[in-house]
């Protein structure tokens, strides 16, 4: 009998399981469409040129000290401007509390813990479906979760009616988790008009928006356009929380760099809220890592580098958008009887294809094409070289 004999093996993370199966596969034409990280047209990971340039500028820095608990202030000041807009009123009025976080996951974790401590009555409303880690994060923070309808399988689009109906059941002070753009896993975003309706309802019901923005710029190629939901809510005068990640849009996945912010009612409130964000971070990890903050500060703080970044993030988004068009074209050329319009209507890294778990299994067994069992295709793994093979395999398993 050891101290650990009662510890059971934890269930495998669904995505890691796919990668294992992919790695074990000997087929030279195998495809990994599970992973949520950008690849170029040769299926290779990418380091942005602007990141290389920023790295060369910070190289040799003799600053290796700890950052403060809340991270690098110059970084979070630039970051909230990217999310809320250069001239956003709450920024001008000093009403934004913000700390550097351990990427998007870390921001969500801080928000969940903040709710646990300071909003003990509040529930978190989570879209169905969502990025699966959202459930783990709020569960670990012991915050009660409610689901709201989001995706309509019949139309492979948004269930706006169901969404509004479910959110109207929220209690004042509840928090609603919204994917700011490029909803994961569905790739379905509300239109500007639908965002206005959601914002209006949430204002009436006194629900607090928390935007998870893991893909700013990566969805449409335009950072301002991808923040339009946030701008709609700002216009309506909402206070709100925001999680930003630089994993996808700057390709800084492993650097764990993001920003967690809350727009409060006054400068005094912001001061108090920010001090409590730090009080939560201190016993968790003491202070965030340095390198990513230096890189992002260098890029966002320099007009020329920022423009270069805008161009590179647009390039990544455009490659994915063009792969969507090619995939749909190939499926339609094959005269596949199913509708594939959603492939080009959905946005961001993922395509929620609508195929069944059994069809996903057949793709893996017969064609060495791997994806999550909910039929989510990571478009980042699709290239001009493998798109026709993917379309043919999809055609075969669906007819
Ligand atoms: N939120 C959503 C919706 C995501 O899809 C992801 C990553 O896949 C994250 C947050 C967190 O990513 P990271 O912690 O790498 O920034």
UniProtKB/TrEMBL annotation:
* Similarity annotation: Belongs to the class-I pyridoxal-phosphate-dependent aminotransferase family.
- Give one Pfam hit by family name: Aminotran_1_2
Q: Name one GO molecular function term.
A: pyridoxal phosphate binding
Quaternary assembly: Homodimer.
The reaction(s) annotated as catalysed by this protein in its Swiss-Prot or TrEMBL entry are: L-aspartate + 2-oxoglutarate = oxaloacetate + L-glutamate
Remaining remarks: In eukaryotes there are cytoplasmic, mitochondrial and chloroplastic isozymes.
Q: Does the keyword Transit peptide apply?
A: no
- Give the E.C. number(s): 2.6.1.1
Domain of life where this protein originates = Eukaryota
Protein name per its UniProtKB record: Aspartate aminotransferase
Q: Which PROSITE patterns match?
A: AA_TRANSFER_CLASS_1
GO CC, sorted alphabetically, is: mitochondrion
Q: Where is the Aminotransferase class I/classII large domain?
A: 29-394
Supply the alphabetized keyword list.
Answer: Aminotransferase, Pyridoxal phosphate, Transferase
The uppermost taxa in this organism's lineage are:
Eukaryota, Viridiplantae, Chlorophyta, core chlorophytes, Trebouxiophyceae
User: What are the required cofactors?
Assistant: pyridoxal 5'-phosphate
Its top-level enzyme class, in one word, is transferase
- GO biological process annotations for this chain's record? amino acid metabolic process
């Amino acid at each position: 009998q050891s101290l650990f004999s009662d510890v059971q093996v934890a269930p495998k993370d669904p995505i890691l399981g796919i990668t294992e199966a992919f790695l074990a596969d000997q087929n030279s034409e195998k495809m990994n469409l599970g992973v949520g990280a950008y690849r170029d047209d040769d299926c290779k990971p990418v380091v942005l040129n602007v990141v290389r340039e920023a790295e060369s500028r910070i190289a040799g820095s003799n600053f290796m000290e700890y950052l403060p608990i809340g991270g690098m202030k110059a970084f979070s000041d630039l970051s909230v401007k990217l999310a809320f807009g250069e001239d956003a009123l709450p920024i001008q009025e000093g009403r934004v509390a913000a700390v550097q976080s351990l990427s998007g996951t870390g921001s969500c974790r801080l928000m969940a813990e903040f709710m646990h401590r300071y909003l003990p009555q509040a529930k978190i409303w989570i879209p169905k479906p969502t990025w699966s880690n959202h459930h783990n994060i709020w569960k670990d923070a012991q915050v009660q979760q409610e689901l709201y309808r989001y995706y309509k399988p019949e139309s492979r689009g948004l269930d706006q009616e169901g969404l509004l109906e479910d959110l109207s059941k929220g209690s004042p002070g509840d928090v609603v988790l919204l994917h700011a753009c490029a909803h994961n896993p569905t790739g379905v975003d509300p239109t500007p008009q639908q965002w206005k309706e959601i914002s209006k309802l949430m204002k009436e019901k006194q629900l607090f928006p928390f935007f998870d923005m893991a893909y700013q710029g990566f969805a449409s190629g335009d950072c301002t356009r991808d923040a339009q939901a946030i701008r709609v809510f700002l216009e309506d005068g909402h206070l709100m929380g925001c999680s930003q990640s630089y994993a996808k849009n700057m390709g800084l996945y492993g650097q764990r760099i993001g920003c967690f912010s809350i727009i409060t009612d006054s400068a005094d409130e912001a001061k108090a809220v920010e001090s409590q964000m730090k009080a939560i971070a201190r016993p968790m990890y003491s202070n965030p890592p340095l390198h990513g903050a230096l890189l992002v500060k260098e890029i966002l703080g320099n007009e020329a580098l920022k423009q270069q970044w805008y161009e590179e993030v647009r390039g990544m988004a455009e490659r994915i958008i063009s792969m969507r068009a090619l995939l749909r074209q190939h499926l339609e050329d094959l005269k596949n009887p199913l509708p594939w319009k959603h492939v080009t209507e959905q946005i961001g890294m993922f395509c929620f294809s609508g195929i069944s778990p059994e069809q996903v299994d057949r793709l893996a067994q017969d064609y060495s094409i791997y994806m999550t069992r909910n039929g989510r295709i990571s478009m980042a793994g699709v290239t001009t070289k493998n798109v026709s093979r993917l379309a043919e395999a999809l055609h075969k398993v669906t007819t």
